[in-house]
Amino acid sequence: PQGPEEARAFVNAFLKSSMPKMKDEAIQDILSRKAVVLEHYCKKQKKQKRKKPKGFTAKQRREMRLFEIEPEQQRYAIFLPLHELWKQYIRDLCHGLKPDTQPHMVQSKLLKADLHGAIVTVTKSKCPSYVGITGIILQEFKHVFKIITKEDKLKVVPKLNNVFSLEIDGFVSYIYGSKFQLRASERSARKFKLKGTIDL
User: Fold this and answer.
1) pTM for this prediction
2) pLDDT in tens, 60-77
């Protein structure tokens, strides 16, 4: 065991190395008057900014063919369950489609709803070859719908200059594609005029 002198020498040396900025007189003064609080000096670490992960560019998505549907998957029967899910989604969105439900309320909900899985028909078009195309919407882009028909053919139908009809539980809604050129994710915040127009 250490004697008093060795202990005192150890404490003084320890305090001197722990508090290098203080003089010996100040350390002795602290020892004789009050308890010593040893401070730890550390360098402030700079906060590293988290880098947000960058998504793929449009060119990279095209090169990777992320949005292309394989030919063996282009079958109408495969997507019928998607249509059933979509109908249930619309019924929940409109709080149940009852006979006394206001048509304009259904129309306003449909304009902002996700249409993937809906069965639509081209009723009017400036291009006669599009009229009568009926099928399930598989993909919606800003300017086009990709529709799978009952004949298992994938059709790319532009929104511009086309009018689409959509029916669910007896309610028929018309979509003027020229006024509907938005991405599906952008429609929820968009205000639409419910009054239709006769132009395409």
Assistant:
1) 0.64
2) 877 777 778 888 888 999
21 φ/ψ sector (left φ>0, alpha ψ -120 to 50, else beta) = alpha
Q: Which residues contact 15 (CB under 8 A, 6 or more apart)?
A: 27, 31, 36, 38
**Cα 30 off chain centre by:** 61
188-199 residue pLDDT tens: 676 666 555 555
In three state form, how does the secondary structure of the chain look?
A: CCCHHHHHHHHHHHHHHHCCCCCHHHHHHHHHHCCCCCCCCCCCCCCCCCCCCCCCCHHHHHHHCCCCCCHHHCCHHHHHHHHHHHHHHHHHHCCCCCCCCCHHHHHHHHHHCCCCCCEEEEEEECCHHHCCCEEEEEEECCCEEEEEECCCCEEEEECCCEEEEEEECCEEEEEEHHHCCCCHHHHHHCCCCCCCCCCC
